[in-house]
Design brief:
The chain folds into 2 domains: 70 residues; 234 residues, no CATH class. With 319 residues, the protein is mainly α. It is built from 13 helices and no strands. Helices cover 81% and strands 0% of the residues. The longest helix is centred in the last third of the chain and has 34 residues. This is Stage II sporulation protein M. Keywords: Membrane, Transmembrane, Transmembrane helix.
Length: 319
């Protein structure tokens, strides 16, 4: 990229950063990261230019501001989910999109495989689960599995398992992103064949209204965990202007923040599965409200809200 175009694309952002007088540690850190990224690019392609000297001075200013405001406010725990995590969703929106596309494709593969191979569902879900579900269907209670344990025991077991799966999905990204894609493949094939199985039994819409009470949050969080793994793997594959080690450290830190940030979502999903989904005969309007409400929250928190925060940070626009 020619230097004039580089300056033109970033001039407004630099001007805002230069005039910014914020003392908020999270905003300072985010601004500092963006400036150092631009500085690294300028040093690589325009090492002796005035642009590089200007960015070096601006980076020094932010560095001093950060150390002046080293002690953080007591609401650091809250600000992580309020600002830091949404900014990461915006920064890595491509990885979230790729993870979602991978997962949808794998779900379709699972559904098609189940349609054309009667043994595929048993291969993926296991004979015991299919036999139990067939028995439940024969008894008129197809989703009786959600009533098979006490609520509290079920809650802790499901929450722990889902958090474990998300962390493994993230960590597997170190294998050049392929590891995370593999776990998306496993979960996608399972979900696709699982849903096809109920549709083939004439229980498709009923399964959606029951299972997706908790599944909307749970599955979406696994997809986002896959995105965190792509962040980790891509930082190793595509270091850009950083050294590979620096890029890996940054990708690992950001990916871990995303994976850890999913914990509250998994806890809520486990609560729904343990205490709510078991009421399989609840009114359609109630299950629909929970499902749609969960979906609206995810779209808002992962897509809409991060864009608003990003624009406000970058250009100082008001909500």
């Amino acid at each position: 990229m020619r230097e004039p175009l580089f300056v033109k694309q970033n001039a407004k952002k630099w001007e805002y950063f230069e005039q910014s007088a914020t003392n908020d540690p999270d905003e300072l850190a985010d601004n500092f990261i963006q400036i150092t990224d631009d500085l690294a690019y300028a040093k690589t392609f325009y090492p002796k230019s005035k642009t590089t000297a200007y960015l070096n001075g601006l980076a020094s200013k932010f560095h001093q501001s950060i150390y002046k405001n080293k002690s953080e406010k007591g609401n650091r725990f809250i600000s992580f989910w309020q600002f830091e995590l949404p900014i990461l969703f915006k920064t890595y929106q491509k990885q979230v999109m790729y993870s979602f596309i991978f997962f949808i494709v794998f779900c379709l593969m699972g559904a098609l495989s189940a349609k054309y191979d009667d043994n595929f569902v048993r291969l993926i879900m296991g004979d015991d689960y299919i036999n139990m579900t067939n028995a439940n269907i024969a008894k008129g209670d197809p989703f009786g599995v959600y009533k098979s344990q006490g609520e509290v025991v079920m809650f802790f077991g499901i929450a722990a398992n889902n958090i474990y799966v998300s962390l493994v999905t993230f960590a597997a990204g170190i294998i050049f992103s392929v590891g995370s894609v593999y776990f998306l493949l496993r979960n996608g094939l399972m979900l696709g064949s699982f849903q096809y199985y109920f549709f083939s039994k004439g229980l498709g819409m009923k399964s959606v209204l029951v299972i997706w009470i908790h599944g909307t949050l749970e599955i979406s969080a696994i997809v986002i965990a896959g995105a965190a793994g792509l962040v980790l793997g891509n930082s190793l594959l595509f270091p850009k202007t950083f050294t590979r080690m620096v890029s890996l450290k940054k990708g690992a830190a950001d990916g871990m923040k995303i994976a850890v940030g999913l914990v509250p979502i998994f806890i809520v999903a486990a609560f729904f599965e343990s205490f709510v989904t078991r009421h399989t005969e609840m009114p359609i309007w109630l299950s629909s409200c929970i499902l749609i409400g969960s979906l609206i929250f995810l779209v808002w928190y992962v897509v809409i809200y991060p864009n608003r925060i990003y624009k406000k940070t970058l250009y100082g626009t008001k909500n």
